[in-house]
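Severity: low
Component: inverse-folding endpoint
Summary: output formatting inconsistent between runs
Steps to reproduce: submit the following structure tokens with default settings.
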């Protein structure tokens, strides 16, 4: 097995952030400003941080409290042990809500992430529900995505978390799931970098997997409609309505909850750390730090020159031992890993999915966005780029 060196490869880069032409479908205006900067500007206009936004947030909070008045919990908060979900949980409690804390354990938790979750729940006096996936099943699903040669290696976790949260919400009669997503520090992920829908996930598993998934749900389309339109479960992103500075959030969590930093964005998962820093950067020329740094530049949390210096540094800090450990845990030989790293990259358009159907339903999606069923950013991601399958 050969350790592949990191190379920063781009020809054209945004004049405002550091997103570049390695992203399929990206465009630049006359001033050289990219599509993703314009998307964030539009989101800032939709969710400005002002007195009116404070009133909107308070209205949302009052509604959650009212509908959950006679229940043990009035909302669900999914936590990973990372800074975003941890800070969100603290803010939810400060707003006077009574959350059920839910964590999805896929077998890749770092010790720091686990301890962060425990510290928060103890200090805030909250009940933690942990859904533990069968290791063999989840590993098989992750391997399927690796051998499918797509950059969506985190999709099994992301969709499983979404599915678990909706299932528990329906069971407990809770209408509101509160997430820690925020465009101000995360940006908008290109579809060809991360795409998810139930048909896509199941098609990958059917073609490359060997096990049936029983220990955790993979929410299908009918279940989504049931949760959204019958159960009327809504996903609320409260950080859209609140000032959120990453450095200040880390300082606050560290000083008040003994929270410990684990490194890069979403590196609370040891698999995420390896997949994003090594596989994505080497095989797909995808560096998700570009998303993170670019969002922080637009939010005036870092300067562009500093980001440009950081992005040329190798994000992978491990050596052969770290690679060997991950492969052993996955049950992949070094030969198999070399082969999959040399396999031609593909994307979700190379496999069956709901994408074409989604594109046809633009008007219903606009209505669903207004109802709070579909995130506003979905419209901007799905209907702004000319996407094609990788050859």
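Observed output (run 2 of 3):
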């Amino acid at each position: 097995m050969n350790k592949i060196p990191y190379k920063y490869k781009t020809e054209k880069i945004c004049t405002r952030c550091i997103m570049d032409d390695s992203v399929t479908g990206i465009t630049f205006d006359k001033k050289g400003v990219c599509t993703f900067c314009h998307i964030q500007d539009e989101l800032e206009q939709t969710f400005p941080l002002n007195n009116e936004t404070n009133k909107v947030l308070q209205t949302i909070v009052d509604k959650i409290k009212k509908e959950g008045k006679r229940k043990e919990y009035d909302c669900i908060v999914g936590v990973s042990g990372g800074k975003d979900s941890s800070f969100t949980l603290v803010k939810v409690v400060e707003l006077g809500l009574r959350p059920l804390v839910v964590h999805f354990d896929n077998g890749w938790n770092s010790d720091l992430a686990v301890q962060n979750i425990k510290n928060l729940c103890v200090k805030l006096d909250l009940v933690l529900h942990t859904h533990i996936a069968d290791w063999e099943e989840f590993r098989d699903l992750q391997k399927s995505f690796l051998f499918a040669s797509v950059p969506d290696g985190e999709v099994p976790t992301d969709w499983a978390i979404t599915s678990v949260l909706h299932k528990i919400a329906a069971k407990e009669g809770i209408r509101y799931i509160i997430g820690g997503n925020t465009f101000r520090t995360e940006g908008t992920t290109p579809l060809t970098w991360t795409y998810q829908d139930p048909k896509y996930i199941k098609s990958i598993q059917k073609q490359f997997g060997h096990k049936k998934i029983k220990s955790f749900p993979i929410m299908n389309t009918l279940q989504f409609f049931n949760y959204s339109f019958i159960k009327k479960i809504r996903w609320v992103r409260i950080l859209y309505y609140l000032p959120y500075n990453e450095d200040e959030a880390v300082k606050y969590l560290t000083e008040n909850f003994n929270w410990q930093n684990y490194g890069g964005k979403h590196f609370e998962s040891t698999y995420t750390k390896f997949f994003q820093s090594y596989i994505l950067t080497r095989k797909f020329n995808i560096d998700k730090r570009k998303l993170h740094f670019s969002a922080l530049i637009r939010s005036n949390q870092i300067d562009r020159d500093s980001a440009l210096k950081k992005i040329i540094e190798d994000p992978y800090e491990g050596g052969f031992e770290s690679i060997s450990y991950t492969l052993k845990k996955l049950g992949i030989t070094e030969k198999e890993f070399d082969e999959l790293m040399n396999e031609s990259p593909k994307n979700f358009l190379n496999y069956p999915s709901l994408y074409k159907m989604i594109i046809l339903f633009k008007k219903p999606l606009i209505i669903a966005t207004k109802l709070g069923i579909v995130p506003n950013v979905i419209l901007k991601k799905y209907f702004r780029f000319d996407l094609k399958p990788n050859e």
